[in-house]
Specification:
Blueprint lengths: L4 E6 L3 H13 L3 E7 L2 H7 L7 E5 L7 H7 L7 E5 L6 E3 L3 E2 L4 H11 L2
Parallel strand pairs: 1-2, 1-3, 3-4
Antiparallel strand pairs: 4-5, 5-6
Length: 114
């Protein structure tokens, strides 16, 4: 994988983590730091290197994007929060996209770097 913006994925859904790992591996300009199931693991891992962008499954814990931004010392614009509830993906970045597609998620990740 080429060097680029470091992305940290936090989701309790292993299928989602692995799928995003593959997709980000093909997306130029991004480097997947890690895909972990919990905030605790993410926080422990981030002690050594902070991510540039976080993709967070909102079902994984009580924290909001703003709280995550503070925890990881990032701008809230660098947090892409999503919900995978009821077989529907909703992406929250600068706007909310209901029934989001993988392309919507990737667009949100790309916009987070701007």
């Amino acid at each position: 994988m080429s060097e680029g913006r470091r992305v940290l994925v936090i989701s309790k859904h292993s299928l989602f983590r692995e799928g995003l790992r593959r997709v980000l591996g093909e997306l130029e300009g991004f480097e997947l730091m890690e895909a972990v199931p919990s905030l605790e693991e993410a926080a422990a891992m981030a002690v050594e290197a902070l991510p540039d962008i976080i993709v967070f499954d909102g079902e994984g814990g009580p924290r909001s994007g703003t709280e995550l931004a503070q925890l990881f010392q990032l701008s809230p614009d660098r947090i892409v929060t999503l919900s995978l509830a009821d077989t529907e993906m909703t992406v929250f970045t600068r706007r909310q996209v209901r029934r989001a597609t993988v392309e919507d998620l990737l667009t949100s990740i790309q916009q987070a770097e701007e």
